[in-house]
Amino acid sequence: MKFFIDTANVEEIKEINEWGVVDGVTTNPSLIAKEGRVFKEVIEEITSIVDGPISAEVISLESEGMVEEALELVKIHKNIVIKIPMTDEGLKAVKVLSSKGVKTNVTLIFSPSQALLAAKAGAAYVSPFVGRLDDISNPGMNVISDIAEIFDIFCIETEIISASIRHPMHVVESAKMGAHIATVPYKVYKQMLKHPLTDIGIEKFLKDWEGLTK
Ligand code: E4P
């Protein structure tokens, strides 16, 4: 399974990337706005840190505008993936962009039927939002599992990014359900790392070592 980091904060990306566990980055307009920086500058800086797919989202709601924005964004770096919202206009843009060899990540997916349409239109990635589904008492993991099953039956190459991850169990369950990628927030990376028994174990090893006659 691949891990992307779900943030636009370059300090967070640098820190987790040093662990050797970042295969790519996803951003969205809310994450970029949180940084209070110029959009293209942030994306450019991220491409200099991580050598993998970097998702940058378009703002237009019409396909022509989406394509125009996308073609500007891909000039930043060869690793840019264009994030497109799951709408009819979005699908039109995905079709055009995939015919030009531009990779797209269709975002705001909440059902297997949406994922199927996005894949059919030529998306390289689909992003089902598990956390936001759980928030409305609709188990997000069922959607991941259904999409994985369908893509497997038809040998669909579109990769599933499990998104809107809220805690480590979302990552573990996504892996079990067959998501190719989990896009993990900084906080969740930290939670995944920690186990109290690891800390207790280190403390005991060091204490025992101190008692040794050297
Ligand atoms: C996905 O690519 C999105 O950036 C992200 O996972 C959304 O997560 P949220 O529901 O926590 O905003």
What does this structure look like?
- The chain is α/β, with parallel strands linked by helices and 214 residues long.
- It has a single domain (2-210), classed as TIM Barrel (Alpha-Beta Barrel).
- It has eleven helices and eight strands.
- It has helices at 10-17, 29-35, 39-49, 63-73, 88-99, 112-121, 130-135, 140-153, 168-177, 186-193, 196-210, and strands at residues 2-6, 24-26, 54-57, 80-85, 104-109, 125-128, 159-162, 181-184.
- It has an eight-stranded parallel beta barrel with strand order 1-2-3-4-5-6-7-8, surrounded by seven helices.
- Strand 7, helix 9 (168-177) and strand 8 (181-184) form a beta-alpha-beta unit.
- Helix 1 (10-17) runs parallel beside helix 3 (39-49).
- The longest helix is centred in the last third of the chain and has 15 residues, at 196-210.
- The protein is globular, with a radius of gyration of 19 Å.
- It starts with a strand and ends with a helix.
- The model has no long low-confidence stretch (mean pLDDT 97).
- The protein binds erythose-4-phosphate.
- Residues 6, 26, 28, 107, 127, 129, 131-132, 163-164, 183 line the site of erythose-4-phosphate.
- One of its GO terms (biological process) is pentose-phosphate shunt.
- Transaldolase is important for the balance of metabolites in the pentose-phosphate pathway.
- The active site is at residue 83.
- It is found in: Cytoplasm.
- Keywords: Cytoplasm, Pentose shunt, Schiff base, Transferase.
